[in-house]
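User: Please fill in residues for this 437-position structure.
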């Protein structure tokens, strides 16, 4: 029986809070219509019509080794793949359904290849698994809030046996936790209305998962969703609590702190454009410079960024995403030291950028906007600076101001040089070694 123990918990989440950056992958047969992963619900598509996508699905360009290399190059340390999304289609070879990749033109277990490829790159492995299921006959249809057949009297719920669905869910989670070696994260999605907690037989499920995969991290959506962070926030987690909160499409304005004042482990999941699953007409991608700044923002608030890609029906990550990830990788190659293993700073956020901190005496100043004259480090005194370096090149920066700083004797200043253009227009990072602590 699983019981919350703060010390063990903190050990368990350590790799995760050090990793800081992961890849979310939303992929399934919804890539065929290419209108996002909710298409079946949004357009109220009946099974007979949606079945076409199952029959057509033929990801001849699926090459997870390429995905894994891309993630690694971008500086990501882990990945989470949708093994089953809300439409119920399974990318893995489950013994409990025929609705799986094995029975499509792909003809094989696509999760297995993902696991092998990402593991080979040294990345940690996450499985997303949808609690909702719009294919299973025992999941509520007419009376459900999200089901494609909601409100449709032709799909009444009498005779549907929800417990049978739960057996199916538990069985599939058992398969995922048994057949692929060590899994690092299981990412359940999501709870809503009265569909939460013990409605999923959550304690039983968590006990099974933790027994099969000691050390695994579980997200918080057996009791929450993208906006309700569950009992982790109370400081007294329930038996089926999540190991981390997962705010969706938002970076918490002040990070997350529980009711007892302790920092909460969190991961913001964010799309690159405006959809999780592949969407052909959505070209509104976040530029790399924004992704870099948002990753830094997460770290500066004590959180992770799980950045999504939505591969297309043939199994390719969209070119736009590839390009952005490569640019992020270029920045990470030089500056990842200010991300991995870093967190909140004890100093206030400067108006020219953000701070991340490794320990009491290593501070990273992320300069987004150049300053006029020397750069002030509020809260640090000049004599406390042991060294200041441009992180990207390792070059010394002079930790001193000039005559114009003399009105601010309590504030340290760093001189970046005479060029008003920052060496890295996205984020120039300065590493400060401090005397104190
Ligand atoms: C959701 C959505 C979903 C997406 C997920 C990612 O709650 O239903 O489509 O997979 O969040 O966080």
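Assistant: Residues filled in for all 437 positions:
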């Amino acid at each position: 029986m699983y019981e919350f123990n703060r010390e063990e918990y903190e050990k368990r989440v350590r790799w995760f809070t050090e990793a800081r950056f992961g890849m979310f992958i939303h992929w399934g047969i919804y890539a065929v219509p290419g209108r996002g992963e909710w298409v079946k619900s949004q357009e109220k598509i009946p099974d007979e019509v949606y079945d076409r996508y199952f029959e057509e699905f033929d990801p001849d360009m699926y090459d997870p080794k390429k995905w894994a290399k891309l993630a690694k190059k971008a500086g990501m340390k882990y990945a989470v793949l949708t093994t089953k999304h809300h439409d119920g289609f399974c990318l893995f070879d489950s013994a409990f359904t025929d609705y799986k990749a094995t029975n499509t033109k792909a003809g094989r277990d696509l999760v297995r290849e993902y696991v092998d490829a990402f593991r080979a790159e040294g990345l940690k492995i996450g499985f997303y698994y949808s609690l909702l299921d719009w294919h299973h006959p025992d999941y509520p249809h007419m009376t459900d809030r999200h089901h494609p057949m909601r409100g449709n009297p032709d799909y009444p719920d009498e005779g549907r046996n929800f417990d049978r669905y739960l057996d199916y869910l538990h069985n599939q989670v058992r398969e995922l936790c048994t057949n692929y070696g060590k899994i690092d994260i299981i990412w359940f999605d999501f709870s809503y209305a009265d569909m939460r907690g013990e409605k999923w037989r959550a304690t039983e499920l968590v006990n099974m998962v933790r027994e099969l995969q000691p050390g695994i991290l579980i997200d918080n959506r057996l009791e929450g969703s993208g906006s309700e962070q569950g009992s982790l926030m109370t400081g007294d987690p329930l038996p089926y609590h999540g190991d981390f909160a997962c705010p969706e499409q938002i970076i918490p304005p002040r990070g997350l702190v529980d009711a007892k004042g302790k920092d909460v482990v969190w991961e913001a999941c964010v799309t690159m454009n405006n959809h999780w699953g592949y969407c052909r007409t959505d070209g509104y991608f976040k530029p790399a410079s924004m992704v870099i700044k948002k990753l830094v923002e997460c770290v500066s608030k004590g959180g992770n960024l799980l950045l999504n890609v939505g591969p297309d029906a043939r199994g390719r990550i969209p070119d736009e995403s590839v390009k952005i990830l490569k640019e992020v990788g270029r920045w990470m190659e030089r500056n990842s030291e200010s991300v991995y293993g870093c967190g909140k700073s004890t100093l206030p956020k400067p108006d020219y950028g953000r701070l991340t901190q490794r320990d009491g005496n290593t501070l990273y100043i992320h300069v987004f906007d150049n300053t006029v004259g020397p750069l002030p480090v509020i809260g640090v005194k000049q004599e406390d600076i042991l060294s200041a370096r441009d992180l990207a090149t390792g070059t010394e920066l002079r930790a001193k101001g000039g005559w114009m700083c003399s009105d601010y004797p309590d504030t340290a200043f760093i001189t970046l040089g005479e060029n008003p253009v920052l060496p890295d227009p996205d984020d120039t990072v300065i590493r400060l070694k401090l005397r104190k602590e």
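For context: The chain is about 25% helix and 15% strand.
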